[in-house]
Design a protein that fits this description.
alpha+beta; five-stranded antiparallel beta sheet; 22% helix
Length: 274
């Protein structure tokens, strides 16, 4: 004759089932949260990659007059502010270009020479005409210096450079980017190996030329404030500037000889030529 389960056995079985169910739910939630964090992080990486591609395209479309002279109006400028771990220690770069990269196809300056400034700004920043609403990579753009002087000849008291924070409002390129660091390889003579990153430098300030290569490093924010990794791996690209040779001292016009330095003017703040 078979006997049934005792009350103690039923209680133990119920308790064991409850423990197994709880463990299963905890495991499921952990896996689900991990998957969600990973998905959010990958989404941020994709947007960062898009921003990097825009920045790379903008640097490759850098403009420099091919008239045999060097000009500070078209030189690449690097404002080194730190190692790029956060917005306060992120670099600011500025150069002249042509094309839609960073400004968009519908921009009025896309088909003309214009100057761009790229930086990381933090949410709540009030240095500009309108407060910054989200932390990320931003760009400012203004017309070429020749167009500014022609169109605004009567407004001699207005500063049409990027120093005028009220005139050119930053436009968001990609959110979630919390750090940006830029280094330069000043000349082709410094190259010993394509992978030799030790030769890149943090300084290329007031300049009448452009660097041979530019190294870009972005840092991405953890999704929703959750830590994905102990140390977030930086995303880096190295860009060869196509017009480097053209921007050198005494660069010759097509079919012509070198024309010397007749078009130079002193750099802003008395900086040295690069």
């Amino acid at each position: 004759m078979r006997r049934g389960f005792t009350m103690v056995e039923l209680l133990l079985a119920t308790l064991l089932l409850g423990v197994l169910t709880a463990l299963s739910m905890l495991t499921f939630n952990a896996v689900s949260n991990g998957w969600q964090i990973s998905a959010d992080y990958m989404d941020k990486l994709e947007r960062t990659d898009f921003a990097l591609n825009q920045l790379v395209s903008g640097l490759r479309s850098m403009y420099y007059p091919h008239d045999g002279n060097q000009s500070y109006d078209y030189g690449f400028v690097l404002d080194d502010r730190g190692d790029g771990d956060d917005p306060d220690r992120s670099d600011v770069i500025e150069w002249s270009k042509i094309g839609s990269a960073l400004v968009g196809n519908k921009s009025a300056v896309a088909d003309t020479v214009h100057r761009v400034q790229v930086m990381v700004l933090e949410e709540g920043n009030r240095d500009y005409r309108e407060a910054i609403e989200v932390t990320g990579l931003y760009a400012r753009q203004c017309p070429d210096v020749a167009l500014r002087s022609a169109e605004n000849a009567s407004d001699q008291d207005i500063d049409y450079s990027f120093a005028n924070a009220e005139l050119y409002q930053p436009v968001l390129i990609a959110d979630g980017i919390v750090g940006f660091n830029c280094k330069v390889l000043k000349s082709g003579e410094q190259v010993e190996a394509e992978t030799d990153e030790d030769r890149f430098e943090d300084e290329f300030a007031a300049s009448n030329s452009v660097p041979y290569k530019v190294q870009l490093t972005f840092r991405v924010a953890d999704p929703e404030g959750k830590s994905y990794r102990t140390n977030t791996a930086p995303i880096m690209r190295i860009v060869r500037i196509p017009i480097y040779e053209q921007a050198q001292d005494g660069a010759a016009t097509p079919g012509g000889g070198k024309s010397g330095k007749g078009g130079e003017r002193p750099p802003p703040g008395g900086g040295a030529r690069r």
